[in-house]
């Protein structure tokens, strides 16, 4: 079971619980909070259980942050849909405070499959430099669960790409891809240490791969906010997911 997998509530099939473990959290010692991508991953898995379908699309609003070791309640509400698609609303709360709300569609139908977007030509992971955060010294938190390598650094074009893989060799799932997609702000020096406000996340496939290539194109910065799009690919070029995000840029004294 992954560190973001929610625990079912025996009294209500639409309710789940999640403990904000060290592996699910980021932030300096004494101020750790659950990463938004982890909250989205947990909400996705809860929705997939209730709907009994795989995720197609979700969008999450990060309202408040759950804190280290806090117990988080997850409730899934089926809003509608049909034979092919289920539409749901997922609410995450802690001690009566709303942390995140997520809308999602799950399912699909048989039809044509075609990938139009291509993975950029980059060096293999083993030939790329290791990405490290100079002040990161926590070997238990979420950052420590992944190995990251820089494939593209072109900040003037708003472009960045990073290879990432789970150190525990976790399988590719919608939940894992939601987490890795939330590394978007860290791929540009101006948005590093920014605050995610949302993440709209679409799953194209869960094609098996050891490494995931996260390719982020910043659309722009304005009024202290960053906007960008991330495509995630398997090592063989298969498209895994598409996501877009808004994040507050860090205050100037906190920038890299």
What does this structure look like?
- The protein has 256 residues and is mainly beta.
- It contains two helices and 16 strands.
- The chain has two domains: 7-107, Beta Barrel (Porin); 125-254, Roll (Thiol Ester Dehydrase, Chain A), CATH 3.10.129.10.
- 9% of the residues lie in helices and 44% in strands.
- The strands form two sheets. Strands 1, 2, 5, 6, 7, 8, 9, 10, 11, 12, 13, 14, 15 and 16 form a 14-stranded antiparallel β-sheet that branches. It has a two-stranded antiparallel sheet with strand order 3-4.
- Helix 1 (36-51) packs antiparallel against helix 2 (174-181).
- The longest helix has 16 residues, at 36-51.
- The mean pLDDT is 94.
CATH arch. level architecture of the largest domain: Roll
Roughly how much helix do the residues carry, as a percent range?
under 10%
Number of strands: 16
How many structural domains in the coordinates? Answer: 2
Task: Please report which band the strand proportion falls in: under 5%, 5-15%, 15-25%, 25-35%, 35-45% or over 45%.
Answer: 35-45%
CATH level-3 fold name of the largest domain: Thiol Ester Dehydrase, Chain A
The number of helical segments is 2
Q: How confident is the prediction overall: mean pLDDT?
A: 94
**Cα shape:** globular
Topology of this protein?
Elements: E1 7-9, E2 12-19, E3 25-26, E4 33-34, H1 36-51, E5 55-62, E6 71-81, E7 85-94, E8 97-107, E9 129-130, E10 146-154, E11 159-166, H2 174-181, E12 195-196, E13 198-203, E14 212-222, E15 225-234, E16 239-248
Antiparallel strand pairs: 1-2, 2-6, 3-4, 5-8, 5-13, 6-7, 7-8, 9-10, 10-11, 11-14, 12-16, 13-16, 14-15, 15-16
Helix pairs in contact: 1-2
């Amino acid at each position: 079971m992954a560190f973001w997998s929610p625990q079912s509530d025996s009294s209500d099939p639409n309710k789940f619980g999640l403990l904000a473990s060290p592996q699910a959290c980021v932030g300096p010692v004494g101020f750790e909070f659950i990463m938004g991508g982890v909250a989205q991953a947990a909400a996705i898995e809860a929705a997939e259980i209730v709907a009994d379908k795989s995720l197609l699309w979700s969008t999450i609003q990060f309202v408040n942050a759950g804190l280290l070791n806090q117990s988080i309640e997850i409730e899934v509400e089926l809003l509608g849909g049909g034979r092919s698609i289920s539409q749901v609303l997922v609410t995450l709360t802690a001690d009566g405070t709303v942390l995140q709300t997520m809308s999602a569609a799950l399912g699909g139908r048989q039809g044509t499959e075609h990938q139009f977007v291509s993975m950029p030509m980059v060096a293999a992971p083993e030939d790329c430099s290791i990405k490290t955060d100079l002040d990161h010294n926590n070997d238990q938190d979420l950052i420590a669960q992944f190995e990251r390598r820089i494939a593209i650094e072109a900040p003037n074009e708003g472009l960045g790409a990073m290879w990432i893989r789970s150190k525990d060799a976790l399988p590719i799932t919608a939940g894992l891809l939601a987490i890795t997609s939330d590394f978007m702000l860290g791929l540009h020096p101006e948005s590093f240490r920014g605050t995610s406000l949302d993440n709209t996340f679409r799953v194209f496939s869960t094609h098996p791969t050891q490494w995931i290539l996260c390719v982020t194109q910043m659309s722009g910065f304005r009024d202290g906010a960053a906007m960008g799009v991330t495509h995630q690919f398997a090592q063989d070029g298969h498209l895994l997911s598409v996501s877009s995000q808004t994040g507050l840029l860090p205050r100037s004294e906190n920038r890299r």
